[in-house]
Each structure stands twice: as C-alpha cells, then as structure tokens.
Amino acid sequence: MPEKPEVLTVVKSLKKKILGKTITACNIYWDNIIASPTPSVFKQQIIDQKINSITTRGKWIVIKLDDYNLLIHLRMEGKFFFRTKGDEKLKHEHVEFILDDNISFRFHDVRKFGKMYLIENDKVNNTKPLNEIGLEFDDKNLTKEYLFDKINTKKLPIKTVLLDQSIIAGIGNIYDDEILFMSGINPNRKANEVSLKDCDNIIKNTNIVLNKAIKLGGTTIKSFTSEEGVHGLFQNELLVHGKAGTNCPKCGTMIEKTKIGGRGTHYCPKCQNK
Predict the structure, then answer these.
(1) What is the 3-state secondary structure (H, E, C) of 195-221?
(2) Residue 118 exposure: Cα atoms within 13 Å on the Cβ side
(3) Which of 31, 35, 147, 219 could connect to 234 by a Cys-Cys bridge, CB 3.0–4.6 Å?
(4) Which one, of 6, 24, 1, 206, lies nearest residue 105 by Cα?
(5) Which residue is catalytic, options 17, 189, 204, 263?
(6) First CA to last CA distance, the chain
(7) What's the CA gap between 242 and 265, in Å, rounded?
(8) Which positions ≥6 away from 138 have C-beta within 8 Å?
C-alpha cells in the first residue's frame, strides 16, 4: 500500500499533467470506488470544475476544485493512467475524468479498494475522512510530548500503534519497520512501555526516513507504481523491511520476520531488544 512518500510522488507527477485543467466529463465504471456522494451526484457536481491545486493529507490525495475537494485514496494498488479521449477502456480502469484538450485521466485499480470523496470546500476539513487524521510527520506540533500523550495508555504493540492514522498521518507498514529499527525499539513492545525519550527518537527517525523516501520518489514494491513509468528508488535503501534472512546492516545478526496485527514485520532481534 502506498504511504506518504509514494502519495507525494503521485501528486508531484499529477501537478505536471492536470493542474489548471477543467473536468469536462466523468465516467464511473465501478460505483464502489465513490464513497460520497452517490455516483450520480458525484458525476453531476464534478463537471466544469477546474483543478486549482493538488496536495496531500496523510495518505489521501487532495485535489482542490472550484467548489469541491476531490479526495482520492489509492489503497493497495490504485494508480493513474493518461489516455486520449475515446481510447479503449482497459479492464481495471474504474473512473475516468475527461479534461480539456481531450485528455482522459483514468483511475486504475486491480483490487478495486480505492476510494474517492467529493466534498464542499468549506466542509472538507470538518468531515470524514480528513477530520479523523492525525498530525503530519513534519508538523511542528508533532512533539515527543504529543506522541507520548497519544500512546502511553495503549497496550497494543508500538508497531500497530504507529500505523494508526489518527496519531501520525502517512506511516504505513514499510516505513514503520524502518523507523522502529532506527529507533532501536522492538516492534512487539507495548506502546504504553515506550518512554518519552523513545518518542523523541521515533519522531526524529520518522522525519529522516520519510524525507529520504520522498527525495527518492518513494518505494516501489510488488505491483505498486505511482503511475505508468514512474517508480520509486527507496526500496534500494531499506534496512530491514523485506530483508528477512539477511544480515543486519548494523550488527550482522540475521533479520527476522514475524506478524504483528496481521502485518508482516521485519526487525533485528539484537538491535531492537528493548
């Protein structure tokens, strides 16, 4: 699943291609992609809306139109394709936006897990899903005190808690492993056992890991790419995620893999022994 760096990479690519364009038509081929409003209302409201800006909130792509915000979550395998109006629709292209200049901007999703919302501009930050999202990783208010306050009563593993988007937005499974490794914290450790100093290290390493991943265009793993021909390079920098059976880059101990909260988790039993 794409995490914050991958979503930012998608946005960077989209800005070059659709910023300033106007949506002249919309075709929905799989209704479940549209979370709100109903597909028929969605199609009606989005016509003649200009794309004025594109940003992110957590793992959501936020496209600001004249009167609405179009929110898109890629989930497992969502990506965007660009065609010419009238080109044959491929099997997994579920939503199509026709832009001026006869550009066909298509949402492709093999698993059909992606979601879209169309919300009025003045309501978007006070309405689900954005009103449920925590602080961004680079928010000045993301302090060790904030994180400690959010997690110190939770008995779940710290690995699971860091995936909670209502605390820190944008961390997913891959970067969770990397952050905890760099912080020297065992992913199975209970969140309420994590100290204030540990919280400080988690925040510092979150910034280091995510900023580096953003610089390298995110991580391309399995079938995920941000769009056709766009691939991240951070997978070449991963220290533990996906490295089970190889030697730890710090101490040489074999990296182990386990499951925590149903998520594949990679760690060094020696470096992450607290």
Answers:
(1) CHHHHHHHHHHHHHHHHHHHHCCCCCC
(2) 20
(3) 219
(4) 24
(5) 263
(6) 28
(7) 9
(8) 207, 210, 211
Which string of DSSP letters, residue by residue, matches 159-201? Answer: HHHTT-TTTEET--HHHHHHHHHHHT--TTSBGGG--HHHHHH
Identify whether 83 is a catalytic site residue.
Answer: no
Label residues 225-252 b or e (16+ Cβ within 10 Å = b). Answer: bbbeebebebbeebbbbbbeeeebeeee
Q: Which residue has the higher pLDDT, 242 or 224?
A: 242
Q: Are 26 and 102 in contact (CB under 8 A)?
A: no
Radius of gyration of the chain (CA): 20
Using CA of residue 206, residue 212, residue 261, residue 243, what is the dihedral sign? negative
Q: Extract the tokens encoding 66.
A: 């004249």
- For strands 60-64 and 256-260, give the pairing: unpaired
Question: Which residue would you say has higher pLDDT here, 218 or 3?
Answer: 3
CB-based burial of residue 176 (10 Å sphere; 0-12 exposed, 13-18 middle, 19+ buried)? buried
What SS3 state is found at 3? coil
**Would strands 168-169 and 135-136 be described as parallel, antiparallel, or unpaired?**
parallel
Tokens 């059909």 sit at which residue? Answer: 112
Return phi, psi of residue 89, to 5°: -80, 130
Active site residue 120: no
Residue 82 and residue 38: Cα distance in Å, rounded? 25
Amino acid code (one letter) for 127: T
pLDDT of residue 168: 97
* HSE-up (13 A, CA, CB side) for residue 66: 10
Q: What is the pLDDT of residues 131-175, one digit of tens each?
A: 999 999 999 999 999 999 999 999 999 999 999 999 999 999 999
Q: Is 3 a catalytic residue?
A: yes
* Residue of 4, 59, 115, 243 with catalytic role: 59
Q: What mean pLDDT do residues 232-245 have?
A: 83
H or E element, residue 46: helix 39-46
